[in-house]
Amino acid sequence: MSKSMWDVIVIGSGMGGMVAAAALSRVGKRVLLLEQYSALGGLTHSFSRDGFGWDAGIHYLGGFAPGGPEQTMLDWLADSPIEMAPVGPVYDTLHIGKTLPLQLSRPVEAQKLDLKERFPGEAKAIDAWFDAVERGHDAAMSIMHARAMPELLGKGLTWWKRRSIDRWCGRTTAEVISEITDNAELAAVLAAQWGCFGGRPGQASFAMHAMVIGYYLDGAYYPVGGAGVIAERILPTISSAGGEARAGVTVDSFYLEGDRVAGVTTSSGEAIYASAVVSTMGARETVEMLNPIDPEHRAWADDVLELQPNLCHFSLLLGFSGDIEAAGASKSNHWLYPSGEVDVTWTSAPEDPPPAMFASFASLKDPSHDPGPELKHSGELIVLTEWSTVAQWVDHAPEDRGADYQAFKHKVEDAMFLQFRNYFPALAELVVFRKLSTPLDTADITGHKQGAFYGLEVTPRRILSNTLRMKTPLKGLYLAGQDALTPGIPGAMWGGLLCAASIDPKVFSHLGS
Fold it and tell me: pTM for the whole thing?
């Protein structure tokens, strides 16, 4: 068995892992970044098929305005600038029932005016909503900052903010909306973007909803060159500091020295040692890898395991040939709710049509995209679902799932495409490539339990739990990424930064600089 020693090992090369590794590299640590998939970048990596290109998990980014804290952090972490292109004045278009589509615009004052024009009798409720979003965001940030502090200081902060935390973190999105308005159409509009983080309105903590959608209120952005440029620009920061990033390396177990996590063992038998280990594979997955766990830490482990996986999804990749803007495509994403009900998932797949769908056209958002003479463009359809839709095949290897699984996939693909055609008939005629991925594919690629690409549930229980701290009770073991903070790229980024700061406080001097 070969051995090697590093300052820090980071498991998982998604946004949280890359950011934690790069931040620690910036303050002088030698970091080894390990990724079990064949490509680095996690859900930020890009890929291509038949001349079309897609991103694994980025459709738009909030909070990355020039000069803003997120962009400032990227500039510090990357070896060369990562340019973000604005999506435009409209970043989301809502299609709810049979009402006219509603565009969500920036800046926030413009969106307020648009909503008041659509709902002239609800001006007071609309103002109350945006006030609640701001307060919910602040309450969530109080909890997130507390998780990066020493535990005693963190408890002091949450005690000081307890009224705000209880009001905004301890209630669901639906509860807050019902307090603000009894207009069913407006309520649907306010809740419609919940798919950005997998938080169904009737179940999710409002503070989580406020934090995630709040990122977009001053505009949405897309990385020029596609999501893959994020890894291309951040990973060299790690190697230039004496670190390394390895793809195709599966971590089998943590190496323990007494009560301390002192490294990892890979599936190839390599023992790798470090002063600290950061896991971004998911909190549940991390705890399950620790089993059997010391009785001293059993209560913490049980608390983590009580938190359930988030939703999973079907994704239909589309390749177009032709003038897609003339046919109805836009830089803006489209949220499709045929019945007008927004708190829905596709549990009956594929027997019934999808009750909700998200449509995005990445190539229009990227100013560097060259469609060529064939006018090639890419798009993606996403439908959120439950693991139960694919659970019958979970114990079979991908190549052994049989004809019934292939038939199931074909039906799902056809149902999604038919729904797309209903909304965009001219665009559907330009589709020359289709490829479906299921929750099983997500689980195979990411290792996330039940294909939960957003990690853990986003309920009040999750946000109020004190178990998801960056520094775990096991010495030397830290959590980063979505589970440490919030789902989505900004949440994973800040989770990585705060985790790095928990390991080396010198990182704090750069936060918000």
Answer: 0.94
Helix H, strand E, coil C: the string for 284-348 is: HHHHHHHCCCCHHHHHHHHHHHHCCECCEEEEEEEEEECCCCCCCCCCCEEEEECCCCCCCCCCC
d(CA 11, CA 8): 10
pLDDT tens string, the chain, 513 residues long: the values are 445 689 999 999 999 999 999 999 999 999 999 999 999 998 888 999 999 999 988 999 998 988 888 999 999 999 999 999 999 999 999 999 999 999 999 999 999 999 999 999 999 999 999 999 999 999 998 888 887 777 778 778 787 788 999 999 999 999 999 999 999 999 999 999 999 999 999 999 999 999 999 999 989 999 999 999 999 999 999 999 999 999 999 999 999 998 899 999 999 999 999 999 999 999 999 999 997 788 889 999 999 999 999 999 999 999 999 999 999 999 999 999 999 999 999 999 999 999 999 999 999 999 999 999 999 999 999 999 999 999 999 999 988 999 999 999 999 999 999 999 999 999 999 999 999 999 999 998 888 889 999 999 999 999 998 899 899 999 999 999 899 888 989 989 999 999 999 999 999 888 854
Q: Are 355 and 341 in contact (CB under 8 A)?
A: yes
